[in-house]
Design brief:
The chain is mostly helical. The two termini are 24 Å apart.
Length: 503
């Protein structure tokens, strides 16, 4: 997906040791490695969500939804571009560069932890739920673990994806084990809180042990200013996302009660799984994109092909969620979740649409131009507050789904503006239609079967139809995208050299 680059230029730009060979092969192999790790581990998270939903009531899940969004918000804020800037920088002394970045991260994380500790009583008061106090404090004490996991950045920058993902895999695996054990024992939402804390600290401990550099405090005013210029638009974008995430659950709880908050949390969690593959592909390419940032032709190739690869998964998953949301409730998580069906269906379509051009942000970050990220997210937040929340109040979960569709449409429109600015002449419509086409035959088959025979009446019938949808979609994808798939497989078959180049 990326052109051949001279080994020494890659090493100098990366500022660290990097395997020799084609960046295309690194990107292809890295995508495969990350896909195996992240899709599998996020599948663990998805299964955990459904298993826990079977043990917990909707109200308990609603309490966790409030805590989860609070934690997610803080973690989003913590990822305000420090790691991305570290990957982008080209200092000659990488140990010193890492320690400077770690210092910035440590200061920022400490501030966030203090803010969260102070915010816990306020959150409990706003929601009118005193039961949020104790687990909220536990969530706040998880935040420092994020800074201690900073050594993972080094492996990411060097494209050492196996080491990076192995360390990151500890969190969801430990969290899954602890959570399911406690949920089965009847510990309610505490099973999720304790499981999350156990996973986060276990991953941080492993990262400290594996760190290639000693952790030192290296305060540098120039570095702080540099990181701030890069990060404040990212932080603004994250804050906008946090407003939408927190606002969704808060409005759901205020208008529909904890069960409404639980439905929004469940639908958001399931839909978010569809974006994991796109995030995996984008994250894999980011170090390589930084290495060829001055080659606009290579950037366009990387964008188009990586986005097509991600949409091979994201669009069928989103459409499948919409088609089989009713079956998921009837034969899976239980009838008590029936009010969430309409939201699951809406979020499935939204998840599919959001994949179109999703990875545009990586290319602007690689160029050091982060302001567009803030502009797009602020605009989406305005639509959320002006459309989605009022529709939730007037038309319930169905109206909220429609409002979130408006948010997705606004984001897509602005995304197109910035993509055309970055890649003049790029046609997003043709790009999107090509990616959507393989899903059409499978979706048409499902709708035709249901038109003739009606909705599935058993778990077996639902699974059979799901298998048919997946099989037809897979066959169509192989037919439509055979050239790209063959190209990627070719990179995987030609193993790169294993020598290392000193940075």
């Amino acid at each position: 997906m990326l052109d051949q680059a001279p080994d020494h230029s890659v090493a100098e730009l990366a500022g660290a040791r990097m395997r020799t060979g084609s960046l295309r092969r690194y990107a292809a192999r890295g995508t495969l490695i990350n896909a195996v790790f992240m899709v599998g581990l996020n599948l663990v998270g998805l299964i955990k969500g459904f298993l826990v939903a079977g043990f917990l009531s909707a109200s308990d899940y609603g309490v966790w939804g409030i805590l989860l969004l609070t934690l997610t918000t803080i973690l989003w804020l913590k990822e305000a571009g420090v790691s991305d800037k570290f990957v982008q920088q080209t200092e000659s002394d990488q140990q010193l560069a890492f320690q400077k970045a770690f210092t910035v991260e440590l200061v920022f994380t400490a501030l966030l932890a203090l803010i969260l500790l102070a915010a816990v009583p306020v959150i409990a008061l706003v929601y009118g739920r005193s039961e949020l106090l104790a687990p909220g404090i536990v969530v706040a004490l998880m935040v420092p673990a994020g800074a201690l996991a900073a050594p993972i950045w080094v492996f990411y920058r060097e494209m050492e994806f196996v080491k990076q993902r192995s360390l990151q895999a500890i969190d969801p695996i430990v969290g899954f084990t602890v959570t399911i054990a406690l949920a089965a024992a009847g510990d309610g939402y505490w099973s999720l809180v304790i499981g999350a804390a156990a996973g986060t600290w276990a991953s941080a401990a492993a990262a400290l042990i594996a760190s290639p550099y000693p952790l030192r405090i290296r305060f540098d005013r120039a570095a702080l200013r540099d990181y701030f210029r890069f990060s404040w638009p990212v932080l603004t974008a994250v804050a906008g996302g946090a407003v939408m995430a927190q606002g969704s659950v808060f409005a759901g709880e205020r208008i529909l009660g904890l069960a409404g908050a639980g439905a929004i949390t469940l639908a958001s969690s399931v839909a978010a799984y569809a974006q994991r593959v796109d995030q995996v592909v984008t994250a894999t390419l980011y170090p390589a994109i930084c290495a060829v940032v001055d080659r606009r032709d290579l950037l366009l190739e990387a964008f188009v092909k990586s986005n097509r690869l991600a949409m091979m998964w994201g669009i069928p998953f989103g459409v499948g969620l919409t088609l089989f949301a009713d079956d998921l409730v009837r034969f899976g998580i239980g009838e008590r979740w029936r009010p969430a069906i309409v939201l699951l269906q809406a979020f499935g379509v939204i998840a599919a649409v959001n994949h179109i051009g999703f990875n545009w942000t990586a290319f602007y970050r690689a160029r050091g131009e982060t302001r567009p990220l803030a502009i797009v997210t602020v605009a989406a937040t305005v639509v959320f507050l002006a459309v989605a929340v009022p529709l939730l109040a007037t038309h319930g979960l169905g109206g909220f789904g429609l409002g979130m569709a408006a948010v997705a449409a606004a984001s897509l429109a602005l995304r197109l503006v910035y993509l055309r600015r970055l890649f003049p002449g790029f046609r997003l419509g043709r790009h999107a239609l090509r990616a959507i086409a393989p899903t059409v035959p499978g979706a048409a088959l499902v709708l035709l079967v249901r038109f003739v025979a009606g909705m599935e009446q058993s778990t077996g019938a639902a699974l059979l139809l799901l298998a048919a949808f997946a099989g037809v979609t897979l066959a169509a994808t192989l037919a439509f995208e055979r050239q790209l798939i063959r190209e990627v497989l070719g990179y995987l078959r030609r193993a790169p050299a294993t020598s290392r180049v000193a940075g």
